[in-house]
Design brief:
Elements (H helix, E strand, L loop, with lengths): L4 E3 L4 E9 L13 H13 L3 E8 L3 H15 L8 E4 L7 E7 L3 E7 L6 E7 L4 E8 L12 H22 L4 E6 L17 H8 L2 E2 L23 E6 L5 E6 L2 H6 L14 H5 L5 E7 L5 E4 L5 E6 L4 E8 L9 E2 L6 E2 L4 E6 L7 E8 L2
Parallel strand pairs: 1-20, 2-3, 8-9
Antiparallel strand pairs: 2-13, 3-5, 4-5, 6-7, 7-8, 9-11, 10-11, 12-13, 14-15, 15-19, 16-17, 16-18, 16-20
Helix pairs in contact: 3-4
């Protein structure tokens, strides 16, 4: 019996960062401040793949995008020169949401939730597109406004949950909902009631799994950063499509007390988190499996190769007759840089050999 073996890359781990940066990025002038430099030190230390920012200074989109591009270019070397920036189109007049990633960002839109908008886009990973929803809910707990801050926050949560639920009903991609939701239901200023529970509303309505990262002391609080007292940050995945594998809340003071962070660079400061923002950033790691290559030996000695493809990908099937530490893989000439279609791709290799190995090479395209 001939055994046909498919080789593919290991699962890909993607690190997502959620952070309210308190207006310390968004213009070229801000990029050289001590605040922006502290943000960069923390980002470089943790090296997230997807950076989700709240409270980017609200200028026009072109100005904000240019400022973030300049900040990465001059302060964040691990992202290199080929990265992508996305800025929400809706602002409250003071601040915006935004994102940065080394992976292409596509299908971007901003849903009008009545305040800062629900920012929506897809990140093109090698194995799948990852849908991101990102929001910054109404802050504070004033009862003198009409509607009150609490009522506005609940209304936004209901809008976001309904929007994500409607999207998920017609899309099968894994998705994440993240942001500064300005509510800790275990310690709520507004008081959790039958009609006020914005975090529960989003988790249940958007079909998410709650995941609670902590710092080295086991604390999940994210605001303020000197002595965190509330959990305002959430980075949650669809309950039946994706699960977090690990995560953390980063507080430079806590890390320095444990002999970490400040021990790897003389520029790292114990109070970097405080310099950067009045919030502690949250990092969550997710695993994405590689494409599965199915191989079937046919009666005539040829082999049927098939796999699920995605758009924005180019696929090459490679083969070799022997596996060694220096294996030379050769592309099949009839299956070189074939565009994905979003459906199953199939190829029959007519070569009859007593032993042959295959692997699938995937190239992401913008």
């Amino acid at each position: 019996m001939t055994v046909w073996l498919a080789l593919s890359a290991n699962a890909q781990q993607v690190r997502v960062m959620q952070w309210n940066i308190q207006g310390h990025l968004g213009t070229l002038a801000e990029n050289t401040t001590s605040n922006a430099e502290a943000i960069a030190r923390i980002v470089n230390y943790h090296q997230p793949d997807i950076l989700l920012f709240n409270e980017i200074q609200s200028r026009n989109i072109v100005t904000n995008a240019a400022a973030l591009t300049d900040w990465v270019t001059n302060n964040v070397p691990y992202l290199g020169t080929n990265f992508y920036v996305a800025i929400s189109t809706i602002t409250d007049g003071f601040e915006r949401n935004g994102a940065i990633s080394p992976y292409p960002i596509v299908n971007e839109t901003t849903y009008d939730d009545g305040l800062r908008g629900l920012h929506s886009f897809q990140v093109v990973l090698p194995s799948t597109n990852l849908q991101i929803f990102h929001t910054h809910l109404k802050c504070c707990h004033s009862l003198t406004n009409s509607p009150t801050d609490c009522e506005r926050r609940q209304t936004e949560a209901e809008f976001d949950a309904a929007t994500i639920s409607a999207w998920a009903a017609t899309n099968s991609l894994p998705y994440i909902m993240a942001g500064d939701w300005n509510e800790d239901q275990s310690n709520s200023f507004c008081g959790v009631t039958a009609t006020y529970h914005p975090v529960t509303t989003i988790i249940q309505g958007a079909q998410l799994i709650d995941f609670v990262p902590t710092d080295l002391n086991g604390k999940a609080k994210t605001q303020p950063s000197v002595a965190p007292t509330y959990r305002y940050y959430y980075c949650l995945a669809a309950s039946n499509r994706l699960a977090a594998v690990s995560g953390l809340v980063f507080n430079s003071r806590v890390w320095a007390q444990a002999g970490l962070y400040t021990n790897v660079s003389p520029q790292h400061l114990t109070n970097d988190t405080v310099l950067a923002s009045d919030h502690c950033p949250v990092f969550v790691n997710y695993d994405f499996p590689p494409p599965l290559l199915l191989i079937t030996g046919l009666a005539n000695g040829s082999v049927d190769l098939s796999f699920a493809s995605l758009s924005n990908r180019l696929y090459t099937l490679e083969t070799t007759g022997v596996l060694t530490t220096n294996t030379s893989w050769q592309p099949l000439p009839d299956f070189l840089l074939i565009p994905g279609t979003g459906t199953l791709l199939d190829y029959i290799d007519p070569t009859a050999a007593p032993q042959r190995f295959y692997r699938l090479h995937v190239q992401v395209t913008p």
